[in-house]
Design brief:
There is one protein chain. The protein has twelve helices and eight strands. It has an eight-stranded mixed sheet, with helices on both faces. Helix 2 crosses helix 3. The protein is globular, with a radius of gyration of 17 Å.
Length: 270
């Protein structure tokens, strides 16, 4: 683990392999460990740089403060890439991290070569409702306040059960091995910040503004809004490519690491 000072905060990250730089941004409840299952395959041809966002592990945040904001995390990723001084990088984000990566691409296209969005999280506004999914808050977002109350009451596992089962199906939390469970527990208090993070919904004009080569990738068995959003965005990001990993759900790279890595490497090498 290394750290890089960005916007007054020490961003922790892993730096593995050699080759064109690929910066990886985790999603809700994740951290730089999120990408462990694919570090091996991806680092054979790429310098993989996996960061932990502000207030995520290795920090053990208590949920107090006013800087857990989508705009702050976007600014931090922009600052991180600038601090690396590697020139344009490839950027990959998963879930909430996919939303962050989308915003980085929207705001600072000069920093990026290619963009990979793995089931980006968020909502669609009315300009995208005709593209296959209506506007409004996702079922996952609706569950977060209830999960936050459990976190505040000290029921960490109860909170994570709510969120994980909503994303990947009932009973998923109970079936998770010990290590993934602990990673999620380490970041449970970030749910408190996510309630007021001020995340904007995706709009058609924003999607149409993405100019670099983009891959949107999803699990074949993902359900709900997470299965819709990336497909809708792919219709409006110019020249976007798509890949579906059969049999996988939202944590695609954890459930099918080789297939996921092959899809990403084929795109990055094209």
């Amino acid at each position: 683990m290394q750290t890089l000072p960005v916007n007054g905060y020490d961003i922790a990250y892993l730096d593995v392999g050699q080759g064109p730089p690929l910066v990886c941004v985790h999603g809700t409840l994740g951290d730089f460990r999120t990408w462990y299952p694919v570090l091996g395959p991806l680092s054979k041809k790429h310098r993989v740089i996996s960061l932990s966002l502000r207030h995520f592990f290795p920090e053990h945040w208590d949920g107090v403060g006013d800087d857990y904001l989508m705009a702050q995390h976007v600014a931090d990723v922009i600052g991180f890439i600038e601090q690396l001084k590697l020139g344009p990088v490839d950027l990959m984000g998963h879930s909430r991290g996919g939303h962050i990566a989308f915003r980085v691409a929207e705001q600072r296209p000069d920093l990026l070569r290619k963009l990979v969005l793995a089931e980006p999280g968020g909502d669609l506004d009315a300009t995208l409702s005709s593209a296959g999914a209506g506007p409004g808050s996702s079922a996952i977002a609706a569950r977060i306040p209830a999960a936050v109350e459990k976190v505040k009451a000290g029921d960490i596992d109860g909170a994570l059960d709510l969120i994980v089962d909503m994303i990947d199906g009932e009973g998923t939390w109970k079936r998770l091995p010990a290590a993934p469970k602990q990673q999620l527990r380490d970041n449970a208090y970030t749910l408190i910040g996510q309630v007021g993070e001020k995340r904007r919904p995706f709009s058609r004009s924003e999607a149409e503004s993405i100019g670099m080569p983009t891959l949107l990738i999803g699990g074949g068995d993902t359900q709900g809004s997470l299965a819709q959003i990336w497909r809708v965005l792919a219709q409006h990001i110019p020249g976007a490519r798509t890949a579906v990993i059969p049999g996988a759900r939202h944590w695609i790279f954890d459930q099918a690491p080789q297939e996921y890595s092959e899809a990403v490497m084929e795109f990055l090498g094209a």
